[in-house]
């Protein structure tokens, strides 16, 4: 029986970074993919119509799947991701789960300074990917999303920070992979969803992305039909 259960929806959203960490570090876990929407709403999301901020004014609980309506009140904050584990462990909030595994799996740097740098990157990465998610709820094309989130300015800074460590040839912090690297991989996945050529302007970041994405277990995860079926977020059909 798996040691942990990770509950998240059929999207990458705020769950994929945790899936990456667990897959890449051989953690025994059950990846419980919870349907978010009723079939009708799901089809609407995946069609060109999408589901945008203004649509939520008419939100009805039965838009959500029966499974999610049942599970929601049992989770800590009524949202996913949500993790359960040994000795009654229950953790909600993506970055709390990420940091838990960071400490447990030695993915949190070699000392306090490295840990602080990892925290710094996680904070800004979270802010950035959250802006991207918010932009998906606005009816606009992807170039307007790239413009409005100022993602390109942030990528310039992330690339400079990467280049300051080991000439950008390794990881973001120190000499071994950390939770910041998995978070960056997930962010860069989101950037590529907005524009397949987006990383071309940032060669060091692009090389980092390719190194992370081609780690054996990450590549295997990305090659599964399950992963390939995931959208960037639950409100529209954008992979
Ligand atoms: N601050 C939370 C946000 C979690 C969150 O927004 N979860 C969304 C999916 S990404 C959710 O559960 N939506 C369904 C709902 O609220 O009923 C985190 O970072 O984990």
UniProtKB/TrEMBL annotation:
One of its GO terms (biological process) is glutathione metabolic process. Transmembrane segments: none annotated. Residues 111-230 form the GST C-terminal domain. Pfam families: GST_C_3. InterPro entries: Glutathione-S-Trfase_C-like (IPR010987), Glutathione-S-Trfase_C_sf (IPR036282), Glutathione_S-Trfase (IPR040079), Glutathione_S-Trfase_N (IPR004045), GST_C (IPR004046), GST_superfamily (IPR050213), Thioredoxin-like_sf (IPR036249). Gene3D superfamilies: 1.20.1050.10, Glutaredoxin (3.40.30.10). PROSITE patterns: GST_CTER, GST_NTER. One of its GO terms (molecular function) is glutathione transferase activity. Signal peptide: none annotated. Residues 2-109 form the GST N-terminal domain. One of its GO terms (cellular component) is cytosol. This is Glutathione transferase. It comes from Owenia fusiformis (Polychaete worm). The lineage of its organism: Eukaryota, Metazoa, Spiralia, Lophotrochozoa, Annelida.
């Amino acid at each position: 029986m798996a040691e942990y259960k990770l509950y998240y929806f059929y999207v990458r959203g705020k769950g994929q970074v945790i899936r990456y960490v667990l897959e890449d570090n051989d953690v025994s876990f059950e990846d419980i993919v919870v349907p978010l929407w009723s079939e009708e709403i799901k089809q609407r999301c995946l069609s060109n119509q999408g589901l945008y901020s203004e649509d939520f004014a008419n939100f009805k609980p039965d838009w959500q799947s029966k499974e999610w309506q049942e599970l929601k009140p049992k989770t800590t904050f009524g949202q996913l991701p949500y993790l359960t584990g040994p000795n009654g462990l229950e953790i909600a909030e993506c970055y709390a789960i990420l940091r838990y595994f960071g400490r447990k799996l030695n993915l949190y740097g070699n000392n306090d300074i490295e840990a602080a740098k990892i925290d710094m990157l996680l904070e800004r990465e979270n802010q950035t990917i959250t802006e991207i998610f918010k932009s998906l709820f606005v009816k606009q094309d992807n170039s307007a999303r790239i413009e409005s989130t100022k993602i390109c300015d942030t990528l310039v800074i992330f690339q400079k920070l990467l280049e300051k460590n080991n000439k950008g040839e390794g990881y973001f912090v120190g000499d071994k992979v950390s939770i910041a690297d998995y978070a960056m991989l997930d962010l860069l996945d989101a950037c590529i969803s907005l524009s397949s050529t987006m990383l071309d302007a940032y060669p060091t970041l692009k090389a980092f992305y390719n190194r992370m994405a081609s780690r054996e277990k990450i590549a295997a995860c990305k090659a599964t039909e399950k992963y390939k079926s995931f959208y960037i977020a639950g409100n529209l059909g954008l992979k």
